[in-house]
Task: inverse folding
């Protein structure tokens, strides 16, 4: 089992940047593909980005492509989401997730482990 703890959320103006971190503990971090999802009030949780366990494959939703970058540091057991050019529509609770799968990384149901979430608020 793996435990995930997100950090780095906050309030930022439109056009600004934030970097989210997801610290993992438990079983070998490098065995897991990692992802970020987000959930805005009244909306379903949606896929944002995913990264294979070796870090050689990345996936992004169309809404964040070119603005967000996912990465990982297996030595630090941490995944990151660098968010640039933030927009008010990026406002949501952001969740880190982990899975032993290598396929279907864009689907919420593929993930077995979730963090508690971190709030990101982008003001206009």
Result:
């Amino acid at each position: 089992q793996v435990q995930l703890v997100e950090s780095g959320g906050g309030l930022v103006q439109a056009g600004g940047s934030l970097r989210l971190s997801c610290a993992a503990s438990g079983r070998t971090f490098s065995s897991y593909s990692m992802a970020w999802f987000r959930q805005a009030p009244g909306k379903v949780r949606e896929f944002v980005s995913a990264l294979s366990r070796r870090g050689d494959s990345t996936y992004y939703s169309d809404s964040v492509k070119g603005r967000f970058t996912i990465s990982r540091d297996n030595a630090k057991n941490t995944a990151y989401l660098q968010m640039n050019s933030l927009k008010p529509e990026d406002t949501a609770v952001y969740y880190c997730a982990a899975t032993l799968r290598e396929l279907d990384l864009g689907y919420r149901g593929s993930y077995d482990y979730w963090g508690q979430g971190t709030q990101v608020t982008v003001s206009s």
Remarks:
- The first strand starts at residue 2 and ends at 7.
- DSSP finds no helices and eleven strands in the chain.
- The mean pLDDT is 95.
- The two ends are 40 Å apart (CA to CA).
